[in-house]
Amino acid sequence: MHNLKKQKNAESLFLVVDTSIKGVCLALVRRRDASGEVLWSGVADGQFASASKISHLLRVGLHATGCRLDDCQVIAVSVGPGSFTGIKI
Fold this sequence. Notes:
Layout lengths: L1 H8 L1 E8 L4 E10 L2 E11 L5 H15 L6 E6 L5 H6 L1
Parallel strand pairs: 1-4
Antiparallel strand pairs: 1-2, 2-3
């Protein structure tokens, strides 16, 4: 029980990926309980922004925040508006 309570109140780093827009958007969000703080966000817009842009944005965001990918406890990915999003990724 004690560990569960400790985890519930622990700070988490979220990596948020959205490809439902024309391009891709990434954000690193620090979350504690019900509140969140956007540490960094970036957008690669354009018709041909795809998975290769996700890797680049991720490197930029991690460098800007001083975080490592291993620090992310949660990765949230939007499902997008339709099947094209799945093809892009």
